[in-house]
Amino acid sequence: MNAATGPVAIVGGGLIGISWSALFQAFGHDVALYEPADSARELVIGRVERLRAQLADVLPVKSVPGNIRVTGVLEDALSDACWIQENTPEDISIKRDVYSEIEKFAPPEVTIASSTSSFVWSTLSARMMEPQRLITAHPFNPPHLMPLVELYGRDVARVTAAVEFYRSCGRHPVVLKREAVGHIANRLSSALWREAVNMVAEGIADVSAIDEALVYGPGLRWSVVGAHMAYHLGGGPGGIEHYLAHLGPSQEQRWKDLGNPSLDAKTQELLIAGVRAEAAGRDISTLETQRDDGLIAAQIALRSRRP
Amino acid sequence: MNAATGPVAIVGGGLIGISWSALFQAFGHDVALYEPADSARELVIGRVERLRAQLADVLPVKSVPGNIRVTGVLEDALSDACWIQENTPEDISIKRDVYSEIEKFAPPEVTIASSTSSFVWSTLSARMMEPQRLITAHPFNPPHLMPLVELYGRDVARVTAAVEFYRSCGRHPVVLKREAVGHIANRLSSALWREAVNMVAEGIADVSAIDEALVYGPGLRWSVVGAHMAYHLGGGPGGIEHYLAHLGPSQEQRWKDLGNPSLDAKTQELLIAGVRAEAAGRDISTLETQRDDGLIAAQIALRSRRP
């Protein structure tokens, strides 16, 4: 199961499959891409090359990329694959059929990583002979440029191998403890957009103002520190504990329109422990310095591009 | 009311007042800071200087900064001010008392800009002799580094002057059409954090995984394009209309846990019209190119900083 050194099979040559192909090829993997539609197959090589060119500005790619071949025969793409990245349409019948076919041709020790955005592991794997070989490995959009990969699987060794594999290709994987529709990032995005749409519908601000407020405000901040860490640093020297004690109630008040969790004692404990683990021994002052370095660098970089 | 060329009065020398002082001074304004607490006053000059040093990496500051003087007498700080930035604690009595005092000493043509995060314009201005002279001008945290300023006021000329003034100091102001508690950005942040806390409480993922998913996923994206624009670019060549037609229903399903708006025909029209205005004649391909340039630049900048 040495994913890092063998060929990768890409199942499905749409945007996501193309993006994965560019990434894996750039990091020296040979890629075999299966795409059933003739017209789409013809476009693959050119599209993958263009994406690979963009990647070189962003990541420490290999000087010699892997090879790529494109086929309309699934068995052909799977023949010596060490890793299988599945990127078929978000249709449960299509996906289950494809897993059934893959299981005929690829031995069980080869992990099937599904790029699914909508389905959870237990739904996808329900009819498989070897469900443990499936993991969900969801990229973010646009896939060839975004570092995030969200992982879930029931086989710890496979998930660990997945973390190493995607890291070796310059991605930043995170692992879910429990499967969830939308994984993590799209749930966060959906929650935020819900309030954005609410503000548009209520006439509070127009789309541009809301988008700009995000880009020049929390978006910029969240490209450097996460939501919890931001509050940990927004509570002064007392950190997240101080934030929760003093501003927790006002957040809960605002949430009354938004949903169901409460900042009860148990949840506060989870948050505090989680932030402490994330701080990993770094004190507030150190965290603030690192955050500011990131904000400065990102702003300089962004500012130089503004038309 | 020529804010761009005159001295600025800063009322309140906490973090927000210090940050504004650094900003205005860096752009050539003389600053007069009022802070009632002796111990805090002693720290102002040093703190402002340190923040100004950070600003120089980020913004096109003037080679010769404005002067700064610190006083414990409010009337003294207001004496020749062309602009008043109020940064007192988030306590309505404190703020109303301070406006009452300011109105005694500063003529009505001088705008009072409140940095309030919690209160809306109508609450703040309720007891003023000249309520129209008040605007809310809320910075984001950390104030000396974040470009966003959220503006609301009832006097169009003053709000317009505020936009020009903050822009002249390197800020990126946005204007609300209707006052709202939390303005825009903190409403978005609160909506997102609500789901983040939900995922922690439900055991879906831990704090670190959620924060990383945000930083390496939507946070990074939202430092370049807003939430609406991201969906506009996530709908393929059909844009936001296509996105709403095909993925609107799944978003609404997910929102059932989150809140109250619906994607009815009227709301869809507002969204489509708003995105069109934001696109300002640029086509999908142009928008995608600009987005990718931003993602590349930000990632290079961020990557070079990672410990």
UniProtKB/TrEMBL annotation, chains A, B:
InterPro entries: 3-OHacyl-CoA_DH (IPR022694), 3-OHacyl-CoA_DH_NAD-bd (IPR006176), 3HC_DH_C (IPR006108), 6-PGluconate_DH-like_C_sf (IPR008927), 6PGD_dom2 (IPR013328), NAD(P)-bd_dom_sf (IPR036291)
Species this protein is from: Aquamicrobium segne
Top-rank taxon, per record: Bacteria
Keywords assigned: Oxidoreductase
Protein's name according to its UniProt entry: 3-hydroxyacyl-CoA dehydrogenase NAD-binding domain-containing protein
Domain 3-hydroxyacyl-CoA dehydrogenase NAD binding: 8-177
Domain 3-hydroxyacyl-CoA dehydrogenase C-terminal: 182-250
